Amino acid sequence: MGRIEHDLCYHGGTSLPEDLRRRFARIAALLEVADSEFVALRNRIGEKKKTLQEDLAPPKGRIAQVPSTSFFGGLRSSERPSPGG
Fold first, then answer.
1. Quick one: CA torsion of 73, 74, 77, 83, rounded to 10 degrees?
2. HEC secondary structure over the chain
3. Is residue 74 packed enough to be buried (19+ CB in 10 Å), middle (13-18) or exposed (0-12)?
4. Which residues contact 24 (CB under 8 A, 6 or more apart)?
5. pTM above 0.90, yes or no
6. Are 9 and 16 contacting, i.e. CB atoms less than 8 angstroms apart?
7. Which pLDDT tens digits describe the chain residue by residue (85 residues)?
């Protein structure tokens, strides 16, 4: 923001009037807050993604239990393996 103010106001040896300097300061403050909020949102989204991945992952050292209908639901009964193996 200082670069913009410098380019617009200090070329030619004049400085900005107080009301315009205040407007620049207000805009700079808004941009700073927006930047901070975007960083916070990005961090929070990353945390949520990590938590969701952890929640959906099967426990370590254990095989996830999946109903047999998921694997064999499309097979005719004569094509399905017997319950004993």
1. -40
2. CHHHHHHHHCCCCCCCCHHHHHHHHHHHHHHHHHHHHHHHHHHHHHHHHHHHHHHHCCCCCCCCCCCHHHHHCCCCHHHCCCCCC
3. exposed
4. 1, 4, 5, 16
5. no
6. yes
7. 567 666 666 655 677 889 988 998 899 999 999 999 999 999 999 999 999 888 888 777 766 666 666 555 555 555 556 666 5
